[in-house]
Amino acid sequence: MSKLLADTRETMSASWRRQRRRELITAAVMLAPSLVFLAVFTYWPIIRSLIYGFFDVQLGSPEIFFVGWENYARLWNDALFWQSLRNTVVYMVVTVPTSIGLALVLAVALDRRLSATALYRSTFFYPVMIPSVAAGMVWVFLYAPGYGPINGLMELLGLPKLEWLYDSQWALPAIIFMSIWKYAGYFMLILLAALQLVPRDLHEAARLDGVSGFRQLVHITVPLISPTLYFVVIIGVLHSYQIFDYVFVMTQGGPADATNVLTFYIYQNAFQFQDIGTASAIANILLLVVIGLIGIVAVTLGRRVHYMGR
User: Fold this and answer.
1) How many domains does the structure of the chain reveal?
2) Which residues of 7-43 are buried (b: 16+ CB within 10 A; e: fewer)?
3) Which segments of 130-225 does DSSP mark as H helices, in order?
4) How far apart, in whole angstroms, are the C-alpha atoms of residue 117 and residue 63?
5) Which residues pair with 65 in a beta bridge?
6) Same domain, 245 and 109
7) Is 160 among the domain residues?
8) Is residue 49 part of a domain?
9) pLDDT tens track of the chain, all 310 residues?
10) What's the domain range around 143?
11) Helices 171-195 and 226-240, interaxial angle, to 10°?
């Protein structure tokens, strides 16, 4: 009897091992295309950038020369690098909280039972579906100093016309405004999905106790959707440091480098100045800045996240 049980247990164990092996092989086959894509187009470029930051590499030249920290030392004394970093930080500091705040207001408004809610949702989300290059070209027309609708509206209101994209004082705010218009709908959709999971009876109980709508938002809604808000902030920070297409289409970093950001400065060094080493060094610094900011967000906001059931 004991021998029969041992044989049965051994057979079941062997069958489980074969099934486990088949599952692992199936998983490896299914994941292989994505892993190869990530390795070729994500991980290898990051590794190569980290290496090239310490070399003198010219675009199209097979020769490379080790220069150590020289690329970073040159950037330390490069006024344009610091201006690009400052423009990037300003863009992030203004765009992320404004977009998320506007998205939260829109999501709360659309979470109510209103007529034509689907139409409003589609309207606010529509900018997200427009390709970035096309959106940039549209806003170049809207900002046009001579015939642009924005200046036409300002003239009707008795306000002075502005050369939005040609004035170093207004070029970056113009791109920031366009970016808020582009991304607020994306954040709104994510927050709206989170709001629909908030129990309605909590708001009804608070309403019966005489709690105002604003206090309900602050003390009930925001804590319950804090995990989604945390996720949206992380996504917003990552988006803000990837800005390139709007600058490339609308201003080319001008006027007077007023809209030059780190990603565009990387492009300039790599493909205009053909200095891959310096471009890689800037990319490495950008990576460190993003990791540092994500760490700050995780430390400051991550501790305030309230998960249901905890």
Assistant:
1) 2
2) eeeeeeeeeeeeeeeeeeeeeeeeeeeeeeeeeeeee
3) 132-142, 149-156, 171-195, 200-208, 213-216, 222-224
4) 61
5) 56
6) yes
7) yes
8) no
9) 555 555 566 666 677 778 888 888 888 889 888 889 988 988 898 899 999 999 998 887 788 888 989 999 999 999 999 999 999 999 999 999 999 999 998 888 887 766 667 787 788 888 888 898 899 999 999 998 878 888 888 888 888 888 889 988 999 999 999 999 999 999 999 998 888 887 777 777 777 777 777 777 777 788 888 888 999 999 999 988 888 999 999 999 888 899 999 999 999 999 998 999 999 999 999 999 999 988 888 888 877 776 655 5
10) 70-304
11) 150
Structural contact between residues 274 and 59, judged by C-beta atoms closer than 8 angstroms: yes
Cα 179 → chain centroid: 11
Q: Are 171 and 164 in contact (CB under 8 A)?
A: yes
Q: Are 91 and 172 in contact (CB under 8 A)?
A: yes
| 59 occurs within a structural domain | no
The pair of three-digit structure tokens given for residue 257, joined into one six-digit string: 């480098």
Separation in Å, CA 133 to CA 95, 138, 156, 164, 277: 19, 9, 29, 18, 28
Residues 26 and 167 both lie in one domain: no
Q: Give the CA-trace dihedral at 244, 250, 252, 255, to 10 degrees.
A: -120
Residue 309 lies in a domain: no
Does residue 245 sit in the same domain as residue 300? yes
* Residue 23 shares a structural domain with residue 76: no
Same domain, 24 and 141: no
CB 221 within 8 A of CB 198: yes
Cα–Cα–Cα angle for 230, 179, 260, nearest 5°?
A: 105
Same domain, 269 and 200: yes
